[in-house]
Design brief:
This protein has 125 residues and is an all-alpha fold. It has a domain at 1-45. Helix content is 66%, strand content 0%. The protein is built from three helices and no strands. The chain has helices at 3-47, 63-85, 100-113.
Length: 125
């Protein structure tokens, strides 16, 4: 066997293992999704209140009413999050002085980009 045929066999074997692993993970996720969905149905069926606990004026909610209530709750939560996420002015920090670390990092970045840095020489003494 030549080197190219061995390389092709190794490539095919490696790619086959990768795709097999992906398919295995996909199957496991599908199985877990199926098992989790079954548990949710059992939980929701066991949590429904008995007719004696419901108020007499409130009829039992149908599937459509529950969906409408869930949609209304989702819209209310989305509106509340939108109000909290609106842009507001940021206050200036107490000091605008750049630390020595920040100055060094910015200087290094400017040198890497090729931007000349012009500084006035300091007088010591």
């Amino acid at each position: 066997m030549s080197g190219i045929s061995i390389a092709l066999q190794i490539t095919v074997l490696g790619m086959g293992l990768v795709f097999a692993a992906i398919i295995l993970l996909w199957g496991m996720m599908a199985l877990l999704t199926y098992l989790a969905a079954e548990k949710e149905v059992e939980v929701s069926a066991s949590v429904t209140p008995s007719p004696s606990l419901r108020s007499a004026s409130q009829p039992p909610a149908g599937r459509g009413e529950k969906r409408a209530q869930a949609a209304a709750i989702a819209v209310a939560m989305a509106l509340a999050e939108e109000q909290d996420a609106q842009a507001h002015l940021l206050s200036m920090p107490s000091t605008a002085i750049v630390s020595a670390w920040q100055l060094g990092m910015r200087t290094r970045q400017m040198y890497q980009k090729g931007t000349p840095i012009v500084r006035n020489p300091r007088k010591i003494g």
